[in-house]
Amino acid sequence: MALLELRAISKRFGGLQALANVSLALDDGMIASLIGPNGAGKTTLVNTLTGLYRPDQGEIVFRKRSLVGLKPENITAAGISRTFQNIRLFSDMTVLDNVLVGMHARLQTSLPAILLRSKAFHAQERQAQRRALELVELTGLHGREHTWAGQLSYGEQRRLEIARALAAGPEILLLDEPTAGMNAQEAQSLMALFEELIGNYVKAILLIEHNMRVVMGISHWIHVLDYGEKIAEGNPDKVRRDPRVIEAYLGQGTWAPDARD
Amino acid sequence: MKGPVATAGVWVAILASFFLAHHFPQSALAFLLFEGSLLAIYYAPIEQSLKTFLGALVLLGLMPILGFVNGYYLEVAIQIGIYVALALGLNIVVGFVGLLNLGFVAFYAIGAYLWAIFGSPQANAFIAGGLFPLSPNWFFIFLVLSIAVGALTGVLLGLPVLRLRGDYLAIVTLGFAEVVRALVNNLDKPINLTNGPRGIAPISKPPLFFEPVLQWAGLQVADATLYPLYFYFLVLIMVALIILVTRRLESSRIGRAWKAIREDEVAASAMGVPVVRMKLLGFAVGASFASAVGVLFAAKQVFINPESFTFMESIGVLAMVILGGMGSIPGAIVGATGVTILNLQLLKSLSIWLNNLRQSGAALTIPLLGSYSFSQLPAQFEPAKYERMVFGLILIIMMIFRPQGILPPGYERKK
């Protein structure tokens, strides 16, 4: 059985059918991508999945448990973390503190323990710091721990978003356009990072991305949305030849092999 | 300026200002310098342990000695302490969690009335048996109780309103404070709970539990000099505890969650922070500080009435937090101290100085332009009456030139 399953999700905003009967499954060890033109409903799907929106219809099942109606913080605690398309870091906090906030659900210290600085508090805090530093290093932000998040460069901020999402110790990582605005080289190094994450830090990744080199390069499975509906899915080879996908999104000839490299 | 030079400089600043204040007990300026020496300790590039020692020396040793010379100094110090405690409480709500609270004084009033009603004969009006006023020993129990009551009212107010954001929340908190004030103003009938606008007096002072020790040591101190010292140390201990609690909360998962909510509520909840619960906790902690300070205030004043808990008081504390730097513990302390000194000392002594000048009949002679006799200075011109105006000007100037406050958070790290 799949790790995460979305069954016939529909979501409507007034007159706009943002999602119509979208189903999607994510298996252990899989990097899946969600592609489609702007306004196709990709981010709406992630927002629905993470509890920011409640689906009008449909079911979200994660590890045999329904997630519909849970608050965002509970979904994160259950094991699904995300990054944001429009970067939403805590700008007036340090890089390390940003990552530590991601660990909130994992830290169990009680109020008395915090006020009395018990042994358990110190032990937990030390461990959290260690893990946060490890994640900072993993995402290539080494040496920037005490910088304000707002002072990081654009690419670094995107990386910090990933580190922060990983801090919650998720099984599934949702990445909303992680390479937006990056050059080819930066995107390349992020792809390597994603492949390293699978199996080591997370069980599965769902990626929303417009950079086709990234999508085609690392996805095991691709879902294509258009006007809130799923118009195709399959492995990269199949999707890139699908006439509906070419018409709605990829465009003629763009992805004939070696056409525009 | 490092090492021995800095150390010597700080010592000179402390001792010189202390002797000045000691020899000129009427000079507000000398006392101001003395207060400023604390700032010098804070800023000086010296060892942390030396800073702690010097701070303790000034607050625990020199300040009480000055109190013997001029009792008003202690009164000023106590007022500063009360406002520092209030500002630290509000700083949690406004500075850490980022919720604009315009009715913070309500919690202060609740604490003050809690002790005022039961620590005076007032409670006899609705509880039969002539049990009241409670013995002074109950003071400390009520101090602890007020923390719980403050936290509870904080949660009660928070539960319905924390879904609101920004401006809406500010308006509701403002309304809440007005409701509390209206209640204490009008709850003298049908049952006389608060004695209405006439206020409550006399309120019991805290117990002199250490009197046997003083007698054993052969020290004879009149109550009139003992109580100000006693309150001074009580306020000092309370502020120290509040700073300790705030710092420990700030550097824990709770403090980080608060700041995350302030920065971006949606992202915070997506990172697993239980937003509503953390906001309630922030409200409760801030309210419990204010409420505990209220108990102390009531005991110190002996008499309280609703006039002490007006909207302007809320705004005053908020301005202290903003001036000092929102979200910064040293900022709240500096802001509260500065504003209190301005109100209690600077403007007042400026008024006295102008008054003396007027009565002396001295004249300012400017060559070619003639002379101006100070006795012509209009009597209405009295800076103490322009407190709010001066205050407003300072706020405007600050917002233009240093909107982040005097000591914004992370000031140390950014340097």
Order of secondary-structure elements of chain A: EEEHEEHEHHHHEHEHEEHH
Give the overall form of chain A: globular
Whole-number mean pLDDT of chain B: 89
The Rg value of chain A, from CA coordinates, equals 19 Å
**Termini distance of chain A?**
38 Å
Helix content of chain B: 55-70%
Give the CA-CA distance, first to last residue of chain B.
16 Å
Strand content of chain B: under 5%
Return residue spans of chain B where pLDDT drops below 50 for at least 5 consecutive residues: none
Describe the structure.
- The complex is a heterodimer of chains A (about 260) and B (about 425).
- Chain A contains ten helices and ten strands.
- With about 260 residues, chain A is an alpha/beta fold.
- In chain A, helix 3 packs across helix 5, helix 3 (about 95-100) packs parallel to helix 6 and helix 5 (about 120-140) packs across helix 6.
- Chain B has about 425 residues and is mainly α.
- Helices cover about 70% and strands about 0% of the residues of chain B.
- Chain B is built from 16 helices and two strands.
- Chain B has a two-stranded antiparallel sheet with strand order 1-2.
- The interface between A and B is medium-sized, with 40 and 28 residues.
